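Box 3.1. Reading complex inputs
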Amino acid sequence: MGESVSRNFIERIIDCDIESGKNGGAVVTRFPPEPNGYLHIGHAKSINLNFGLARQYGGRCHLRFDDTNPVKEDMEYINSIMEDIRWLGFDWGEHLYFASSYFDQLYQWAVDLIRAGKAYVDDSSVEEIRAARGTLTEPGTESPFRNRPVEENLDLFRRMKEGEFPDGSKVLRAKIDMAAPNLNMRDPIMYRILHTEHPKTGRKWCIYPMYDWAHGLEDAIEGITHSVCTLEFEDHRPLYDWFIDQLPGVHHPQQIEFARLNIDCTVMSKRKLLQLVTERFVDGWDDPRMPTVCGLRRRGFTPESIKEFCDKIGVSKVDSTVHFSFLEFCLRTDLNRRAQRRMAVLRPLKLTITNYPEDKTEWMEAENNPEDANAGTRLLPFSRHLYIEQDDFRTEAPNKKYFRLAPGKEIRLKHAYYIRCERFETDNEGNVTEVFCTYDPQSRGGWTEDGRVVKGTAHWVSAAHALKAEVRLYDRLFTAEEPGRRTGNFLDDLNPHSLEVITDAWIEPSLAEAAPEEPFQFLRLGYFVADRKDHSKETPVFNRSVSLKESFTKEVLGGSQTSK
Ligand code: ATP
Ligand code: MG
């Protein structure tokens, strides 16, 4: 299977398993989200890895909703997760599963453990259990209920299930070892009582399995061969193994841990993302500043750029933080190939060409994408009254290296003519209101026969033909590399300037045809996308996806990853 040097450690494990004939050579992976939030870029890494491995080895990848906690779960999350995975380009086929459909089997296995003297009903409260757990240096204390007779445990557990006891009054615990060095092995809780309706099973259950009890067994039930998960579950692996070993004949998946993805200037915990949404620091889960898959999508990220990002950062066993700018680099590379070029002026300044006839319009041919020979051309209207970018004009050239427009200076208007600035007008406060130029009729298309050199090129739109648009400029949601590090509260590092809305931008008329989610490069300004929700022909709305150039070049040149 290719050269082993370029293979990551997970692929090498799978290669060995296939060679040794383990699992009959099968590769079955899964992506097991808890439906308690929207997917983020970290999940995308896991999705790309699990679905990618299945694809690469001709196996399959299951989508399993780990819906063991009914309190925080919601159909909205289930639907959004499925939509996001499909959008990323992956498909679980018929392999859609819910942990809740294994509740009967899990209950049966819990009864088996009780029968074997390996689980007991504990009347202690969760607080008492926690207090008796001990520490890394001190063993825990055994519960007074630990040695209940098997028959009594069976009876109590059945009555727990039948709803006889209130929430929190009893739990079922595994009987392992209160002195185990690994805290996860100190008689972990398997079931708790929760008189709560579940989105899938309704009121059928009032006891719910704990994640650690259910998770490994869910993989076992589905015949998962390689349970790929993040490093924080390394310490839980002995417990998952213990549960499976107590149940004769149950398939034993192999758990492999990798480092979770962290990105600077962002937060990835679902709790924090939910807080940003509910406290309205952002405009929903799909706000283009969110690191959620739907947020990135709305920002204009493409599935290809996210896949490229995940492939490039690779998988490892060492925690690391990847720069957000590397994600942007992947998008920029992708859009450079695919996005058509257009002209738009975000901060308009009126420009009049005094020697151009008032009633004349010329249609200038403009290439759609110099990176793509098949992208063709379009026609741009040119006339006497234009808009240019305020930034492209100064009342005085500051130095010899200034190549933009100023009185006496000549520049090229992209796809049109050379123009020379003659004069300008200001309002009472001295703000420039209009610039007056002459054009050289011999310079059509942007060059002259005399070979005169003009260094500056400006973008423009024809005032009479341009369409008004709303343009949303996004920046990092947080100003600190690690939000919350300074004060302990991640909200203290919110970037107050993460969104700037421009309501009076002008865009070239061909953009009337832009479809929601269609990407463009606005010349000299960056890559933009027609907003998925708010854009229409009547009210064009574009989001800036990424700037044209790296503003953190140093970081990218210094490598995509830095170890903490
Ligand atoms: P929480 O914020 O509650 O800790 P979670 O990250 O555990 O959420 P899950 O829904 O349990 O969310 O995640 C589903 C899968 O995605 C898990 O297998 C998990 O290992 C993986 N995953 C989650 N976050 C990341 C990340 N940052 N990098 C890589 N994989 C991740
Ligand atoms: Mg989790």
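In summary: Residues 266 and 423 are 47 Å apart (CA to CA).
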